[in-house]
Amino acid sequence: MSLFKKVAIIGTGLIGGSIGLSLKKHNLAEEVVGVSRHKKSIILAKKSGAIDDGSTTLEIIREADLVIFATPVNVIIELAPKIAKIIDKNCIVTDVGSTKEEIVRLLEKIFPGFVGGHPLAGSEKRSISNASASIFQGSVCLLTPTKKTKNDSLRKVRMFWEGIGAKVVLLSASKHDKILSLVSHLPHIAAFSLINSVPKEYLGFAAGGLKDTTRIAASDAEIWTQIFLSNRKNVLKGIDVLERNLGNIKSAIKQNKKQLSIILNAAKKKRESVV
Amino acid sequence: MSLFKKVAIIGTGLIGGSIGLSLKKHNLAEEVVGVSRHKKSIILAKKSGAIDDGSTTLEIIREADLVIFATPVNVIIELAPKIAKIIDKNCIVTDVGSTKEEIVRLLEKIFPGFVGGHPLAGSEKRSISNASASIFQGSVCLLTPTKKTKNDSLRKVRMFWEGIGAKVVLLSASKHDKILSLVSHLPHIAAFSLINSVPKEYLGFAAGGLKDTTRIAASDAEIWTQIFLSNRKNVLKGIDVLERNLGNIKSAIKQNKKQLSIILNAAKKKRESVV
After folding, report:
1. Which residues contact A206 (CB under 8 A, 6 or more apart)?
2. Cβ contact (<8 Å) for B268 and A209?
3. How far is it, in rounded angstroms, from Cα A51 to Cα A42?
4. B 148-167 residues with CB below 8 A of A?
5. Over chain B (275 residues), what is each successive 10-residue block's mean pLDDT?
6. How far apart are CA A228 and CA A247, in angstroms?
7. What is the ipTM of this complex?
8. Which of B184, B186, B238 sits opposite A207 (nearest CB)?
9. A146 with A196, same domain?
10. Which of B179, B242, B250 sits opposite A197 (nearest CB)?
11. Which domain covers residue B181, as residue numbers?
């Protein structure tokens, strides 16, 4: 018997499609259905075997015992009340949103079986054509239960992520948003700002350094607009920290060679500790 | 007949070693000798076939018809007068330094056959054990001739770089330093600052985004201290530009969602134009 009878994936892009492929590969669901606003995405998801059936309307998710939101943050919030009207009260609901405080606060009011989630996987490419069951293998998935979270919902969502190869870490939604503002949102802001700092006519001189530091600036602008706004408070604090660190390098270049070398050595040592 | 009779490489690290391997591969020199402060580097360079012979003292470069400086910027400046005492006046001299104004100004006074150069290749790894003849294949090498540069020296240095597979682009030293401050030095400053902005205890949550944007923060701190100081004026201007772009994102997050989306979309479009 599978862990779930019918799983509904809302949003069949890179993450949603990869979840579908993973569920299939590990036999965790008897049936997987997908919903997307884009008919083409449904067709491709079906063709790749990520879903058994799909639709551009929500009706298809009826009778699901697990619903997974895999859409941008704002779309999760927009669709939640509509989905609540269709599914059973006992249905377990989770999401893969990049921010958690806002989503958890709203969705746990709407869904008794809600568990907030965020797999640390993905890339600047977002379409179903880049989907793969392997992206969660060995990755970390953060879950953000609250006092309201039902033990059984948490247990099953955890089994789902561990079943597709992820390592589950539990933390609060507010801690999640604080950490992610620095390890994920701030690097994106740095990358967007950095590429905007280089005149177009100089781009032909770009070597590996610029390419690597700005790779994620090719990420979807709408998704990231929503992430920054949803985690506004922490993101603004993060930018302040980055500005301070830039300022430290600036004043060291101006007046203190030894201090400059100390700052760069500390950075090097820290970076080398990241595996 | 080879292009050069005896090539002396000062500094047998990643770039110097790769030049040696490239010279050998393309039969551009009858003899290649190397100088390094580190005996181990000489032994490894010889073992890998990057040099025929090597030494920790300069005497070995006597009778070279091409000398290539492949050391950090400050070491080039430090060694130049000593090397001038050993080599012939007609010897062609070039370098691979990451900044050019300071080096060109000083070295063309010392060496009649000097041509400033900077191959846009390399990585955060700097040792001879990462050297490879392939790193210049299809890469760009910038040469910065001045009014004083002899045609014959420029012609032969150009033939050398093209002979090992690089595409040569000529530009002034001041233009070079301006461009590189934005396409190379600023990304390094951003990477150093970014990793310094993430608390140690959060590094375990780092996914691909942080890893890519900060990869070059693992670069050698002493080398980059020297590069930033050697190109101080342009680098400080570059930091100002980055701070302005960070400030733009910050105020858009605070008050203007549409503006935020416009900024991120412009960045995405620019990044996608980088090949």
Report:
1. A198, B183, B274
2. no
3. 8
4. none
5. 95 95 97 97 96 98 97 95 96 97 97 97 74 91 98 98 97 98 98 98 92 96 95 98 98 95 98 92
6. 23
7. 0.90
8. B184
9. no
10. B242
11. 175-272
